[in-house]
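The authors assume throughout that readers already know how a fold can be written as discrete tokens. What matters is that the chain and its backbone geometry are given together, residue for residue. A single example would do more here than another paragraph of explanation. For illustration, here is how one protein appears when written out as sequence plus structure tokens.
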Amino acid sequence: MSDESATIGKGLPEVLSAQLMPKHVAFIADGNRRWANERGLPAELGHCAGKRALLELTFLSRKWGIKVVSIFAFSTENWKRPKEEVSYMMCLFQELQDFDRYGTRISCIGDRSRLPECLREVISSLEEKTKCNNGLHLIFAINYSGRFDILQATRRIAGKVRDGKLVGHEDEIDENVMDEELQTNCAEFPCPDLVIRTSGEQRLSNFMLWQLAYSELFFSHKNFPDFKEQDYVEALVWFQRRNRRFGGP
């Protein structure tokens, strides 16, 4: 057993309570390009630095017993970026196997139809290879839109009603039915408890709009490549001090 795998579930910082840890943490990983611009570097190197940061954050999440981590890696609006940058990001996503460590399960959500065929093959292969893993569940949102996720789920429900696969009173089409049709149905805990957005921006940017109904939102001024262990601890301490009401008094 390697030193890294031996630490999984151990080494929780003293300021954190194991009982109050979120089950699902989502990252809106913003600021890769700004990080690069501040250093006079091309945007591509910012995304590479962001990947290194994510590798560290997923290791820490696994080490601290978090069950699910999702990362908003590429939105449907990101196609508007310079062609060279988009091409580099598509190539970078083909390195998802770097996250295949120590029992990690890897899933991808989003519209794959526009992704390069070689990337679709990498995604399908990794999902199949890791589907029975019971460690950290890492979900990449690539070419993802929260609105489109809801729209597609609604269409699937309507199709099941039309085909007689979903029968009964209309009141039986409830939140559970919708949850089953959203792309996050791949996760044991589909709704993030904590959302961390970096770079100082304070918006959701069309990410998991249904799933974030009762999530706690933490905004960091740091760009994603600069978001380190101490920043993650700060976000988790903030989360554990929150009084989560889930819409109640």
